[in-house]
């Protein structure tokens, strides 16, 4: 374990949180920018969905295969190198003069973003003692709320006034500033290099065993199902509001800010309910409740902006409310020794599900001669149907058996289900 001062530790954690903030904002800001991007490149909703999916697919695959090389380099050098490439990918997005170039730039951003997420958590594991690691992870996770409350609304506002490329220029500048701070704050982390890293011939079979464990497969399938359902709808809300309901692009920032602020305050409460009543029970209730706003937003009547502003936080609360109990349950699936690797693989599967959901949603949409987006209602019904599969599938997800029976070793295979 490395020894750094308390002040240095705090600064390092907030630097890593800001790094994560730019990664999350980079992914999230694409969706509300959909109307401007579709207009700028004269592309269909399906093509726009491909751009969203390219990031997620590349992020998931790069995060998954980072396990084969992440422990072979100095953490500092790897972080600074990949983050510099991340900044360049955002600059490439901002300067893309055609849709194919934008697609390539988004794919490259996904590759770098997926690796960065793994490096950040590896640094936390190296530097922060285990007794403070939970609080440190919480600091890193504030990046999601900051991106939803501040980053995405700011990006939408810039996009509305200065064009769709403006948020990516902002991300490039932010990334450059964070990189310079990182070059001063991140220490050289090479202790793990003193041990011979496992050969690739050992890493890949271990990765395969992790992925093919039946208990893990059921958990991965639940993650994939829910993310597909989630992303069938989410990326196309902004394009539909602008094209079909006349919402001005700059007004979207207020909606996303309200939704992000609402989930910031309710996610913890949902987690407490899951602790009290059981993760499966709360998940099932959340899936049923979330079906109502999902169908409403995909069959949206003509509402005033004030009515939309009131509805959107309710939609975000119920949609994100499904994720909290699911994530809490998934932490119980692997045995403790495999928890880090399992959660990294699950994050990769989550990104792949995100990409597949956005891609499938785009395939079901088309643009009418009047410029309106057609087929969103069908997308809503499909999303609810897939979420219903997850509602049934969660009964197959089993927690690991961690208690050792008296007078014998704990078996490697069997699992027990969560009590509630």
- Widest sheet, order of strands: 1-2
CATH topology of the largest domain: Growth Hormone, Chain: A
Number of helices, counting only DSSP H or I runs of 4 residues or more: 16
Q: Which homologous superfamily in CATH is the superfamily of the largest domain?
A: MFS general substrate transporter like domains
Q: What is the mean predicted local confidence, pLDDT? A: 84
- The CATH architecture assignment of the largest domain turns out to be Up-down Bundle
Q: Spell the H/E element sequence.
A: HHHHHHHHHHHHHHHEEHEE
How would you characterize the overall build of this protein?
- The chain is mainly α.
- Helix content is 74%, strand content 2%.
- It is built from 16 helices and four strands.
- The strands form two sheets. It has a two-stranded antiparallel ribbon with strand order 1-2. A two-stranded antiparallel sheet has the order 3-4.
- α1 (6-28) runs antiparallel to α7 (166-185), α9 packs parallel to α15 and α12 (279-298) packs antiparallel against α13.
- The chain starts with 5 loop residues before the first helix and ends with a strand.
């Amino acid at each position: 374990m490395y020894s750094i001062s308390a002040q240095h530790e705090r600064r390092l954690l907030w630097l890593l949180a800001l790094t994560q903030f730019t990664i999350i904002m980079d992914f999230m800001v694409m969706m509300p920018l959909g109307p401007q991007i579709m207009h700028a490149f004269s592309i269909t909703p399906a093509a726009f969905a491909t751009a969203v999916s390219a990031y997620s697919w590349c992020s998931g695959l790069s995060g998954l295969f980072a396990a084969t090389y992440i422990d072979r380099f100095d953490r500092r050098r790897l972080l600074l190198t990949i983050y510099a490439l991340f900044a360049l990918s955002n600059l490439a997005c901002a300067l893309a003069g055609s849709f194919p170039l934008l697609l390539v730039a988004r794919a490259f951003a996904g590759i770098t973003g997926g690796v960065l997420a793994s490096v950040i958590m590896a640094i936390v594991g190296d530097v922060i003692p285990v007794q403070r690691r939970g609080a440190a992870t919480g600091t890193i996770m504030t990046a999601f709320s900051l991106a939803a409350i501040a980053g995405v609304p700011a990006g939408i506002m810039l996009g509305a006034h200065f064009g769709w490329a403006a948020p990516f220029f902002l991300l490039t500048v932010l990334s450059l500033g964070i990189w310079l701070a990182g070059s001063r704050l991140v220490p050289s982390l090479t202790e793990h290099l003193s041990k011979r890293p496992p050969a690739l011939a050992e890493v890949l079979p271990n990765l395969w065993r992790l992925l093919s464990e039946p208990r893990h497969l059921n958990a991965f399938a639940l993650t994939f199902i829910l993310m597909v359902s989630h992303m069938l709808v989410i990326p196309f809300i902004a394009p539909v509001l602008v094209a079909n309901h006349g919402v001005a692009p700059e007004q979207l920032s207020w909606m996303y800010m309200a939704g992000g602020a609402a989930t910031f305050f309710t996610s913890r409460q949902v987690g407490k309910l899951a602790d009290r009543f059981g993760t499966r029970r709360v998940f099932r209730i959340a899936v049923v409740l979330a079906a109502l706003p999902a169908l409403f937003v995909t069959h949206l009547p003509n509402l005033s902006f004030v009515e939309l502003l009131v509805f959107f936080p309710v939609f975000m609360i119920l949609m994100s409310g499904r994720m909290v109990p699911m994530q809490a349950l998934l932490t119980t699936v692997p045995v403790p020794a495999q928890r880090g690797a399992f959660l990294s693989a699950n994050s990769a599967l989550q990104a792949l599900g995100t990409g597949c959901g956005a891609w499938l949603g785009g395939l079901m949409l088309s643009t009418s001669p009047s410029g309106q987006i057609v087929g969103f209602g069908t997308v809503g019904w499909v999303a609810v149907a897939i979420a219903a599969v997850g509602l049934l599938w969660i009964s197959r997800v089993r927690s690991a058996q961690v208690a050792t029976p008296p007078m014998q070793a704990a078996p490697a295979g069997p699992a027990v289900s969560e009590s509630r």
